[in-house]
Amino acid sequence: MRFFLQTFGCKSNQYESQAMREALLADGFEEVHDPQSADLLITNTCAVTGRAGASCRNAIRKAVRANPGIIPIITGCAVDLDEAWTTELSKDGLRVRNAAKHGIAAAARALAEERPLPPPESDRFALKISSFHGHTRAFLKVQDGCDNFCTYCAVPYARGAPESRDPESVFEEAARLIGNEYRELVLTGINIGAYRRGGIGLADLSLRIADTPGLARLRLGSVEPTYVDDRLLDAIASHDAICRHIHLPLQSGNDLVLKAMGRRYTADSFLRLVEKIRARVPLPSITTDVIVGFPGEDETAFLNTQSLCREAGFSRLHVFLFSPRPGTPAASMRQTASNREIESRRRRLIDFGDELAECYAASLVGLEERIVVEKNGEGLCDRYLRTSVPGNGLPINSVQKIRIIAASGAHLAAESIPTFVERPFP
What is the mean pLDDT of each run of 10 residues along the chain (426 residues)? Predict the structure, then answer.
């Protein structure tokens, strides 16, 4: 049996798709890279915005039109939210909830062979990986779920309450990935700042992983501002394997909008946190998410957001249009801005974000950094900027010490420091 796997959305989904891929291959399935030659179409959906859901629907319909005999298996957050289209498009196949993804191979086998389906069993951390298809760095899922219940967000309804993975399981998987020559690991989850298991928090977990022989770099996924504490900042600042990069979602720089969003900080407390990060971590790269067009956001609120972004000196902005998600409090809030105004703000903030990125990149010229080479002498530096090293012959997946010599936009040019010695594999 041949399967085609398509993935939408967050790093947790990407991790889980890799785990499903490995489970299917271990069970004798064959992966193909064209749905027209597949027997099974497995779609790992995202539902964080209406646009994401539309992309999933369109991709499934396109694949089924190209191969009418293909069996659709739909999983991911759209299934857990019971979105009607997942039932419609899986009527000849199967819907699998997030917590049952680990049983995808057994369910797919039974479906294809027209046998009774095994009863679904929920286990958020039964999924395991040994590699990361198509990537030089591997994601490592350590946490699932969220109970922040921001008023615009459907993720708590799709992923459930927070739960942290057993640390020994995390350490075992980290060692396995490093043993398979992944030099950089990225910790991911739905709300990794909430990680806590057996008295171990995110900082302690990160330090333990960072000490694993053979690991060159550990990068943290998105951390909510309310979970960034002194212990975590000390870990980032003190351990040379932990990247000097933190993704800190802002969403808005206006207090009234933040309150309506259900965010648990003010614009001032967010800026004080940024100041603390800069005081503890040398030249940190701070990236963020911003939602434009939230109900009640007027031009003044938007300008407050832009002003905060300027003061924070973000190295990258991820700008999203507000997307009303059914069942969330924000979906019933009154929208006061026109589509034209909202689109204008989105465009202005993207352009402003480009300016901030250029400014931050220029501030790194002269700095000694590291890259994990992805291809053609290029990779991401510790501070999460795309970096190129001239010349040929840099091995893919090797760690290179570099000196940044120029910045063009948000892209860095660097020269290699040949005396650098990598941390050895075990």
Answer: 96 97 96 95 96 96 95 96 94 93 92 83 92 92 97 96 97 97 96 96 98 95 96 96 97 98 98 97 97 97 98 97 96 95 97 97 95 89 94 81 94 84 47
**SS3 state at 276:** helix
How far CA 50 is from CA of 9, 292, 307, 347, in Å, comes to 12, 15, 28, 19
d(CA 415, CA 298): 46
**Beta pairing class for 399-408 and 368-375:** antiparallel
Bridge partners, 44 (sequence order): 7, 75
Query: Helices 267-280 and 299-312: crossing angle, nearest 10°?
Result: 10
Specify the DSSP element, H or E, that contains 301: helix 299-312
Strand partners, 220: 187
Sort residue 161 into left (φ over 0), alpha (ψ -120 to 50) or beta: beta
Angle between helices 267-280 and 230-238 (to 10 degrees): 30
Is residue 345 a contact partner of residue 293, using CB atoms and an 8 Å limit?
yes
Separation CA 338–CA 349 (nearest Å): 17
> Could you tell me if 206 and 243 are in contact, meaning their C-beta atoms sit under 8 angstroms apart?
no
Interatomic CA distance for residues 346 and 89, integer angstroms: 33
Q: How far apart are CA 369 and CA 367, in angstroms?
A: 6
Q: Which pLDDT does position 424 carry in this prediction?
A: 45
Model-level pTM? Answer: 0.94
Judge contact between 258 and 226, C-beta under 8 A: no
Contacts for 172 with CB less than 8 Å, ≥ 6 apart: none
Q: What's the angle, vertex CA 337, arms to CA 333 and CA 340, rounded to 5?
A: 135
Q: Which amino acid would we find at residue 401?
A: K
Q: Which amino acid is at 332?
A: S
